[in-house]
Amino acid sequence: MKIVTLLGSAKKKGNTATVLTWVEAELLSMGHEVERIYLEKVEIGGCLGCAKCRELPEEIGCVRKDDAYPIFEKMIEAEAVLFATPIYFWGYSAQMKALIDRGYSLVCNYHMPNHTSLVEGQRQALLVTGAGPYENNAEPLFVAFDRIVSYYKAVKAGELYVAGCSTPDQMPPKVKAQAQALARQIDGQKLQ
Asked: What is the CATH number of the domain that holds 105?
């Protein structure tokens, strides 16, 4: 399976990147092709809200031709996409949010009988790290992700929240096992 991972953290070796590396290593050990896209190093402008993308339902119709375009092409080609982000102010990082907003161009006719998506049926998963608890902190990201998956007509393939993060070297050993379990969910394996 071809899998794209989207790292929405500014830190290449921070908590999110560390857990994502464990997920990717497990996916690679299962024989999957994995490509990480480090969103901090690309240029993604905000959605203009112009709705020009609605005119081209069979292609990425966004008028902005920045780095979001080739990322969307890779996402469309992939069988699975893993969104990985730290929590910033009860939401996605700015790097991840810009890409999510621009994902508006992947779907046409939402809430209508002819609702189409360029990533329909794709397996999508979410990895989030944060210092605080899930309640009153991370839960809005997961609610939003469920809605994003529905919007994309995708299949939710797993989710993981790693709480209490301070530095990668202080993560308890159970986190690596949780990351490996997320990889198995993305792969479609039943958990024991």
From this structure: 3.40.50.360
